[in-house]
Amino acid sequence: xxxxxxxxxxxxxxxxxxxxxxxxxxxxxxxxxxxxxxxxxxxxxxxxxxxxxxxxxxxxxxxxxxxxxxxxxxxxxxxxxxxxxxxxxxxxxxxxxxxxxxxxxxxxxxxxxxxxxxxxxxxxxxxxxxxxxxxxxxxxxxxxxxxxxxxxxxxxxxxxxxxxxxxxxxxxxxxxxxxxxxxxxxxxxxxxxxxxxxxxxxxxxxxxxxxxxxxxxxxxxxxxxxxxxxxxxxxxxxxxxxxxxxxxxxxxxxxxxxxxxxxxxxxxxxxxxxxxxxxxxxxxxxxxxxxxxxxxxxxxxxxxxxxxxxxxxxxxxxxxxxxxxxxxxxxxxxxxxxxxxxxxxxxxxxxxxxxxxxxxxxxxxxxxxxxxxxxxxxxxxxxxxxxxxxxxxxxxxxxxxxxxxxxxxxxxxxxxxxxxxxxxxxxxxxxxxxxxxxxxxxxxxxxxxxx
Length: 451
Known about the structure:
The chain has 451 residues and is mainly beta. The protein is built from 3 helices and 38 strands.
């Protein structure tokens, strides 16, 4: 059942266009954070205002607690409160990272642990470092100078023996390194692969083959199942192993079994099983040559249109997109589409096909509101006032005009509103929290000094 908060942040905003003491012109802005007692309907003014206050859970389903930040002598401290009684003798932490109301990474006395919104300890403060990755949830922790991987129950998945554990978000793995071996821990399925081989980075993992970067100029292909390199060669570059082969050094097809095929001279690109290259002929004419793996498909001439650098891309293993672009002047030529045999395609038809493929990669459509409020917990799940509701709200509460281009107003509880300002710039919208209102009362005060 949804709860109702007993405390709501109250903000005093101070901005001036002159120095109040010297009278000199000077723009300055400060913000004080206090608390409003909902039951007693009064402001709990703090002798030393808080630096920041925010709810742990804007849905109030699991918690109505607030994270409070204070700054003393340049040092930040954090605590969690739910009622005014918590203000009596709060427990302060050096750092708080809220993952959910039931899962908060906390640091105290330079040691990390896990607590919930009631400050109940779930993992004791015994780690020198703690970071969470999901799904499912695991933690990278550091103890006695070594890294390991644990669960929320403090069960050890990987022992504390690694000098480094890094998260590769693109591949969804943890890369655990000690002096002799590297362990790849797959967060999704919990599988573990071992690489007894020194390398600088993992570029890709696909079809059981890892592309390892040895240094700035050398790449090798490693079979995770057989725990060995697929051959004894290194390459200047290597694409992911897709459709059973990788394009290496931009001109060598390397099969999963380690065998290779050297293509004719040129600089090739790969998309799925399609391999293609472009060669300048003359007078802005370019030759495009296409293959399915190493099987020749077609070679045709295309004249570049417009200014800039000639560009050729492949989509869906079926279509070539030819154009010209210039980063300096943002000048783009007309986009032309062709099949792999060089036959021109209707722009509108092909455009729809390309968009369909794009839609597959972006199954969830996120509207503007969700994009700019994503960092505000689950705020975007709350009821946002529509145009008519917002118009009446703004007319009544902001009779002197808006402090921004637009307001987003969310009713996060019965009669309790969260207000976000939105300003529009050339590169899109920028949003900032403005204040709360409860039962028609503004929980903010603006003090302005102009003259």
